[in-house]
């Protein structure tokens, strides 16, 4: 079953209902891209990188 992601989005109008990238998200402690990917419930590492303008060679750790 699908569940809501466990993070607070700080996006402002007109996109206040969605977070498109990690720009407005600050993790509470040190983390990895793999952990952030799981938090945002993304299916692929590539989707996380693309939405944040990171190169495909960016490591998950």
Summed up, the domain count is: 1
Shape: globular
Q: Helix count?
A: 2
**Low-confidence runs of at least 5 consecutive residues:** none
Distance between the amino and carboxyl termini: 28 Å
**Biggest β-sheet strands, sense, barrel:** none
Please state the CA-atom Rg, rounded to the nearest Å.
Answer: 12 Å
**Integer average pLDDT:** 71
Strand content: under 5%
One letter per element, helices H and strands E, the order comes to HH
Count of β-strands: 0
Report the structural category.
mainly alpha
Helicity, in percent?
A: 10-25%
Description:
Helices cover 23% and strands 0% of the residues. By secondary structure, it is an all-alpha fold. The protein has one domain. The protein has helices spanning 33-39, 45-51. The radius of gyration is 12 Å and the shape is globular.
What order do the helices and strands come in, and which of them pair?
Elements: H1 33-39, H2 45-51
Offer a concise description of the structure.
With 61 residues, the protein is mostly helical.
Keyword list:
globular; about 60 residues; 2 helices; about 0% strand; mainly alpha
């Amino acid at each position: 079953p699908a569940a809501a992601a466990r993070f607070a989005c700080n996006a402002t109008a007109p996109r206040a209902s969605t977070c498109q990238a990690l720009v407005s998200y600050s993790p509470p402690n040190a983390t990895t891209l793999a952990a952030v990917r799981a938090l945002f419930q993304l299916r692929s590492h590539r989707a996380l990188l693309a939405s944040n303008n990171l190169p495909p060679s960016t490591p998950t750790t």
